[in-house]
Amino acid sequence: MTDLTPITALGASAPADQHFGPLRISENADMALASLALRRAADMPAPMGLELPAPGKWSQGQGVAAFWTGPDQWMIEAETRATEDFAAELASHAPGCSITEQTDAWTVFEITSDRGDAPIRAMMEKLVNIDTGSFGPGSATRTGLHHLSVFLVRRAEDRLAVMTMRSMARDLWHVLQETARRLKGEPA
Amino acid sequence: MTRLSGGLIDRSRSLNFTFDGRKLTGHPGDTLASALLANDVRLMGRSFKYHRPRGLIAAGSEEPNALVELRGGARQEPNTRATVAELFDGLDARSQNRIGSLRFDLLAVNDLFSPFFAAGFYYKTFMWPKAFWEKLYEPAIRRAAGLGSLSMQADPDAYDKGFLHCDLLVIGGGAAGLAAAQAAARSGARVILADEDFRLGGRLMAETHLLDDAPATGWVSGVEEELASLPNLRIMRRTTVFGAFDHGIYGAVERVADHLPEPGDKPRQTLWRITAKRAVLAAGAVERHIPFANNDRPGIMLAGAMRAFANRWAVSPAARVAIFTNNDDGHRTAIDLAAKGVDIAGVIDSRDNVTAMGSYPVFAGGVVSDAKGRLGLTQVEVTQNGRSQWIDCGALGVSGGWNPNLHLASHHRGRPVWDEALQSFVPAKDGPPGLIVAGAANGQGSTAAALRSGAEAAVQALGELDITATLPDLPQAEDVVSKPHALWHVPGRGRAWVDFQNDVTVKDIKLAHQENMRPVEHLKRWTTLGMATDQGKTANVTALAIMSELTGKPIPETGTTIFRPPYSGVSLSVLGGGNTAEHFRPRRLTPTHHWAEAQGAVFVEVGPWMRAQYFPRPGETHWRQTVDREVLATREGVGICDVTTLGKVDVQGADAGEFLNRLYCNGMKTLKTGMVRYGLMLREDGIAWDDGTCARLAEDHYVVTTTTAQAGPVYRHMEFARQCLWPEMDVQLISTTDAWAQVSVAGPNARRLLERIMDEGVDISNEAFPFMACKSLTICGGLRARLFRISFSGELAYEVAVPTRYGNALMQRLIETGADLGATPYGTEALGALRIEKGHAAGNELNGQTSPQMLGMDRMVSTKKDSIGAVMSRREGLAADTRRLVGLQPVDSAQPVLAGMHLFTEGAAQNTETDQGWITSACYSPHVGSAIGLGFLARGDERMGEVITGANPLDQQQVALRVVSPHFVDPDGGRLRD
Amino acid sequence: MLIPHPLLGLRDAQEFTYLGDARLIDRPDGMAEGAEAAFAEYVYLRDNPAGVHRELWFHEQGDRSWLIVTRDTVTHEILGAELARNVALAANGGEA
């Protein structure tokens, strides 16, 4: 165990976590990420029992999940393993694939609603040019958000993850806070 | 005039407001315009050019005259149409474009000089002397010909943007729009209904027509209630759809809080980008007036607007009114106002043989030929059968027919077509794909036709999407088509206004005709017709009909100007959508940002990044003191700098080496595993583009770096090469810039410092880990890290990378652990000075104008393989360029060296022909003890030792410079390899 | 504009970066005879039609695919979009 003390993407010792009416936005600092790309003529792997999803989709396994990021390329998520060398472990489960550590390349904010999907949709409408009507649970995509590049993962009706490059975490946090605060002031 | 009976205002509550300081009251449901009329205010503004007193023309967003300033302080907002300003308690409104009071505007003197301000006067009058334009004419014109004024303070309110998607967008919530929305919503399709008003119903709210023998308000509330209950339909009130863009994208502004004193937590306005598979344009129509002498007297307005004020807002502009019309519709105003007890002085109808439709006098075959009442109408002159008489009235309603609001249908260049029967332009069939026009906007102006065409449009639109919708049962409604008699203006001697907002008269159009400014686009620019905030909604068609009369060409041949977005004014604030000040664009923070902040570092923007520029210490009074100390500390002890901002790309696959061989002009395939090589990328035209390092971590795994500035473009280019040029290669790419915190550890003590944080068993001795080596290892008790022995400073140097979350702690650890070794953080200024001293090319040298030859790197361009830019780098034009990268040092060490200075042979004339090159980078070198520079100099490689001149003609600077090697420090590179 | 992404459906053009003429995927062989003339043409000479144009768009705020989009430059009508990689593979005689 290293004796260096990590900080969060927002520069704090603990992850950010805030409530705005029906919405809660929390920084998920514990998730490990690694990209998986198929090499030429490789068979489709099923690392750690995961079925790799089709374009635009996210799928979940036991403590791990995956979303499609491009042709023959996926991002693998592993809960609570951010400080481990998850990429190395994944590589051992995915022969014939190129694996790249991405844990700290991204900062992940989980948005959850305690009033179903409406607040999540209202939030999306203010942030991204993605049709909420065709972005139900199990959808994932990359898009632009206020000049930021983000991944969106609809984990459930009432749950949306937004990820951006770690160096821009402060900007994303600001936008999410501001938007959630304003939505409180507007009827859904 | 007090209020009339009825109307859609809430009389149980009163709202206080002020106009030019006067305290007035109105009711919820009022606009500022209706509330002013209810308080007997007819004079609301001054005209643009002549400062003529003006009142309301219209009741909606087409209003050209009643532009007012709202609110005060930082929220002061100019040029709002009083007709769209929803009244709220405490509203502070002021008239504008005046000096002195509204009644006695000192600039009204302009009206006396009107002969000088005719069409094209800008182009004719203020020509001479030339110098007067900027100093005298323009400021004076701007002062006089103004609209409202800005607060000159930052806007305190928030603006938002958003994105919506639907099957059908219905634009306009009148009869046609409501019927369309109802038909569409019942089908289950996803529908958005947007209306610019705060109340749905459109013209139905302004008329007394019955629907199924009951007031229209009942039907409207019924539909509204039904629509509100359907989850698949979204009603957007106070929302103006201002533009139709490609592929079904519409721009809209929702005025979320314009009707509130202060927005509170809400945004003031929201800019919506609506992606609609289909759209129905049901924007209604705008009535046109008929120009006659002095037709701009306050109190003269559109007859339909007068009717709207009476029916919806229960106000009349005067107790006794007259109507001037060329069609049946004008008579409706007389009937409706008479029913509310307003005295009708008469209906002047230009058609012969017309009779009254109620009990009021009719002047058949008559016209209004003049008007009196400078600050408010008192009399109009009626000319009938060659005889004229003055009749008393306080207001005149004018009806010249209706122009469909087809603007959005021509946003893709579709030209409106002339309908002779309707005497108006209707939308062309080649409008934006997916947009169907319905109701009065399509010339279907009767209530029954509007309802029917709206519902049919929705059914058709959804049918195209394979969604089955059925026509709802529509209420019985009037179905009278009002066909105007062609009367475009009343001939006469006085000035007759066509465009009220721009003070364009019939005479101006005649003058434009005389001066051969006849095509409509010329007419517009010569006279300023149809410009400014109203874009000629009440003027354009009338103006070109008059031009058609003058040229003798029919209206269709005269043509019309086309419309462009926005349909009505959109504030710049809402277009910015809230991305202002520090949130104008993202600011990327480095992993050590928080540590640097705590050290009191000064930051600088480098592309999107905020980087530490230097780290001042107590007692240092000038940035140069700090930077010199940081440079020397690095050369003598060890300096540490966050270099995470360099782009990092992970390249894997069986063909990774071959792929990089083709991207970089030098070879990368032969690089041994565990080693790093400098790489230069060219553009395909042979110009040097970007440089960095390639580290081979495994046989099939490289990590390459790019410059900070080009990280994005280089990654895009690499994907282009992978997908489009060499798709058969086995290569996978992904950016890892943000994944790793990377710090440079440079200086003679670098190795000693790093050894202290290496885990046991990691050997980084010179033998085990030589210059340009790299490897993955662990530090600080098991933390995975990557170590690269590369140098940008010319010193013994390493870059160490750890997962980003540990970067801050690593920096702190290195500084603390290395205190006795002189460990010193340095910023981008010292980084720059160190690399200039070493003669390393950077962005200033790779500026898109330089070839590998000029950089002294032509031998790097391999001839044994194909790589991007290699062929073109050898072309004649580039090969002939003799300029080479050199070092430059002032002969007198006290003299400055400036980047951008041009280089000349000593004593030579200084001009473009004798130019010998330029200085790319300069700094003070603590190592050399003077300013130094890098630059490109003609035959530079052959001129070592020569004294040349560096010239900065902007400041008359001339500096004698000695040409030296660009490597001011350790030219043999011994330090790198120790 | 909306770009019909072959894998992801209609996506807003703001997610894309534009490059230009799709002929840029036909890069000459730098080691072949007459390469300089071929490159001069490849680098500098482009058609600029008012009408149907095949052009390269990069889905930068998306899946990082390069697309070849066939677009009418006059009406902005989009007639189709393909993954550039598949087009390049087919042109090189490889399998898509």
Provide a quick synopsis of the model:
The complex is a heterotrimer of chains A (188), B (978) and C (96). Chain B is of the alpha+beta class and 978 residues long.
Describe the structure.
The complex is a heterotrimer of chains A (188), B (978) and C (96). With 188 residues, chain A is α+β, with helices and mostly antiparallel strands. Chain A has a single domain (17-183), classed as 2-Layer Sandwich (Gyrase A, domain 2), CATH 3.30.1360.120. Helices cover 18% and strands 36% of the residues of chain A. Chain A has three helices and eleven strands. In chain A, a hairpin with a 3-residue loop joins strand 4 and strand 5. In chain A, helix 2 packs across helix 3. Chain A is globular, with a radius of gyration of 17 Å. Chain B is of the alpha+beta class. Chain B has 24 helices and 50 strands. In chain B, strands 8, 9, 12, 13, 14, 15 and 28 form a seven-stranded mixed beta sheet that branches. A six-stranded mixed beta sheet of chain B has the order 41-42-43-40-34-44. In chain B, strands 45-48-47-46-49-50 form a six-stranded antiparallel beta barrel. In chain B, helix 5 packs parallel to helix 6 (216-229) and helix 16 (623-636) packs across helix 21. By secondary structure, chain C is α+β, with helices and mostly antiparallel strands. Chain C has one domain (2-27, 35-91): Folate-binding superfamily (Folate-binding fold, 2-Layer Sandwich). In chain C, 19% of the residues lie in helices and 34% in strands. Chain C has two helices and six strands, in the order E-E-E-H-E-E-E-H. Chain C has helices at 35-44, 84-91; strands at 2-5, 9-12, 17-21, 52-58, 66-72, 78-83. In chain C, the strands form two sheets. In chain C, strands 3-4-5-6 form a four-stranded antiparallel beta sheet. Chain C starts with a strand and ends in a 5-residue tail after the last helix. The interface between A and C is medium-sized, with 12 and 14 residues. Chain C: One of its GO terms (biological process) is tetrahydrofolate metabolic process. Chain C: It holds the Pfam family SoxD.
